[in-house]
Amino acid sequence: MSIVTLALLAPSLDSAGKILIFLLALSVLIVLHEAGHFFVARRNGVRVNDFAIGFGPTLLKWTSPRSGTNYRINVLPLGGYCAMQGEDGKTNEAEQQRQFRSANPAQSDNFQAKTPLQRLSIVVAGPIANFILAFAILFLGAVTFGVATPDAWTTQIGTVLPGKPAAQAGLQFGDRITAIDGVPYSDGSEMVKKIRASANVPLKLTYLRHGVTATVQVTPVAGKENGKVIGQLGFVRVPNFVRTGPIDGLQRAGEDFWDGFIGNFTGLIGLITHPAEHAAGVSGVIGMERAASEVQDLGWSPYLHLVAMISIALGVFNLLPIPALDGGRAVFILAEMVRGRPVDPEREALVHFTGFAVLMVLMVFVAYHDIANIVSGKGVF
Questions:
Q1: Using CA atoms, how far apart are residues 337 and 293, in angstroms rounded to an integer?
Q2: SS3 assignment, position 199
């Protein structure tokens, strides 16, 4: 199932369906990450023993008569893996190098037989595949479903701010306002003008939620903007999305990709240097799923944008110099290139143990943060 198909299905699903679609979308991102490793490994003459979609027992298997690769579809279709010749998944990079050189020096299709530069290219191919995929999704979203246009809004309700009139009236993220005081509204800009001109004036709002129409009375509170008193209900406006041409789509995709890429790096740096200030912005799988469920109600364009941002985040995260991640392996290959020989296995093992411990603490912290936000009723935006 493609990302586009997932996006087309997203707006009409219930909560369970939204979770399933998110997990499938995340699985597609992970499988294509592994495909990056696969294609560059094969390009460099490395034998790939298994390329699998999902985990657990194998449902379907096909063995390529040319390469000998076992292509598998497993029971749990979430993620996947690429198992190359020379990777045992049990010992560290330096130990695998030492074992290979003492036992299999003539095995040319072994990952460990390749030059450090070749091995480095294979390792970083996964994150690069995520970056390429993110750009492609952003471009596809721009030319197919559109991009946000400035000063043009829909009548849909975005994030509802706690304690504000909209929240007190029971309005929710994704509701679409269809009329105010019996007057139909299809232009979000005109709707905003009406609300802003109604400070402290009760309004009868008619809205649509999951195909059901309801009416509620709500009074905008008085606020100030540029010195003028305006009415505010306390929800974020949803922009209108307009499709672009291919040239504009490429430019917009490039801008959005760069913003997402830099945003991830600056966020990580901020989390390391000022953890107390940036901890609230950290989200793991639980937080991403909740964000995806909310964004699905806004339509296909913002949903594809979110999927692209997750793909960028996966690429950046995997480049971190942490054991069990591509970045951790890359660091030791780079060290080997500088030293002219692999790092001592015992030293690498110590670094791996320390890094893995740090990674586990980070994952527990992020999971706790996500759950705490849900329990306290906070959104991820």
A1: 45
A2: coil
